[in-house]
Each structure stands twice: as structure tokens, then as C-alpha cells.
Amino acid sequence: MARKAWHSLPEYEAFRALMETGTTTAAAARLGLSQSAISRSIAHLEGRQGSTLFERNGGRLRPTDEAMRLNRRLDPLFEALNRIDGPSEPFKETLRLIAPPSYAHRYLVSLIASFLQANPAFYVSLEVAPADDVIRGVLEDNFDLGMTGVELSRAGVRLDIFRRSPAVCAMPKGHPLSERQSVGLLDLDGQRLITLSHRHARRGQMDRILLEAGSQPLLVAEVATSFAAADLAREGLGLAVVNPFPVAIYETGGLEFRRFESPISYRTYFVQAEHRPLPRIARAFMRHARLFTPADGFST
Per-residue pLDDT tens for 202-224? Predict the structure, then answer.
């Protein structure tokens, strides 16, 4: 037994033409068919739909509410046909990139711009997300490449070291501690301090080593990113211990950095899948990052 055809493109085309022109004469002319062919298609479509689609009104056919609803449902179909029949778009190789805000909002945005200017045939999709989502996104093949500063070891992903950085103390220009070559834990005793929020592993490490050293700074604010901490320090709110990469790259005045003598150090990683080949565009982006990342005076 032959399978019943529930959808007929010629009927939908006749319906669409009639919706847009208002008469069978104009619809037939648009499609290069006879008026009777248009009428038959509409009659068959009404039979399958089980409803009246057009009512006569002074020589014109007025669409019913059912016709209006069907026309809206057909929009995706005709949009897809237009894309198929229209001029083909040139293929652009796409890099799916994911990173936390501290890397994404200034550093990666700038790097992506120079990368695409040098490679106009490429395309980049950037997602900004917490570090946990970076690892998960690459592991689940939602992204080709990630960047993170958190050592989250997970089976199936590989962390490739991109930068190593010591901790630095950010302070407004002219702060008394700016006269020193470096700042230690005891130098923070009694100082106003801006910290990262507790969801960051570095916050727990910072609290622990301050306690062990007997240093008691005055905590005045906690923030989600190192850029926010540095910006508040620039405003004179207090000191901030941060990863200089990539914060120090974008410092244009009003802020000074001194090496922070402590066990705290940072690593920045490229995140990639362990068992999937790295796409050519991802390799090209990593190479671009290594060649064109500006020096910040601290990171290597």
C-alpha cells in the first residue's frame, strides 16, 4: 500500500501565491499555471486541512483565520527554500572559543580582532562563561578551544600552559607601598584590601596565607574578576592582589603594580579535547596568541 503524502509543496506554493496576490488570476500568473490548477490545489489543501482557507469577498478571496495561521507556520519552509535557491554563502571556517570574563572581555576581544583582520576567511564565535563551563564545554564538544586560569583536571581534556605569572599587588599611583620594589604579606596588615569573591579558589588561598602570616588587612570589597579589582584599586578604594595577565597589558595610567612576595602564582591554559584532533583554525589562533600577546612586564 502506497504511503499517503501528507505534504504537497505545489499546494503550499499555490496557497502562498494566493495569500500574497489575493486572486487566482494573479496567483496563476506568478506561478505560470492555470487558474483551475490554482483552484484545485487550494481545494486539495482545504480537504487535507479540514477547514476553509479562503472566502469570496467582492471578486477577491479573503483568507480565513485558519489560512493566516497556516501561512505563519509555512514561513520557515519558504525561508529555507529561499536560502537553498539563493546565492550560496562562502564557507567560513569557524573557531568556537570559550573563556572566563577576565580573559574574554579585553584580551581575547582584542586578539580576535587582529586574528580575523589577518585571516578574513575565518570566523570566531566567543562564549563568556565561568571556568567550570569552559572545561565542560570543550569536553562536550560545544567548543573547539578554551582559555582558563584554573587547574581543573578532568579526563578527556588537556591543559596546555600559555602564560606563567607571579601575583602582583595593584595600587593607585602615589600609594606609599609604590616606593617598594615588591610587597609582602605583612605589608598588607591594616591596609584596605579588595579581594576576589569566595567562588574563586585563589580567595581561599589568600585568606589562608594571610592568616598564617598574622597579617590582617581591612577587607573593603570583593569582586568577580581581576579587572574589577584593579579598577577599584585605581579609584583609590584599596589594594588588590591579582594575576597581572592580562590586567597589566591594558593599564594606561593611574595604577601601579608591584610583585607580591607570596606562594601565590598563576598559570593560564589553553583548553582542548584530549582525544579529538584540534581544528586547523584553533591551531592558527593559538599560534597568533603566542606571537601577538603584548608583554606585561611580569608574565612569561
Answer: 889 999 999 999 999 999 999 98
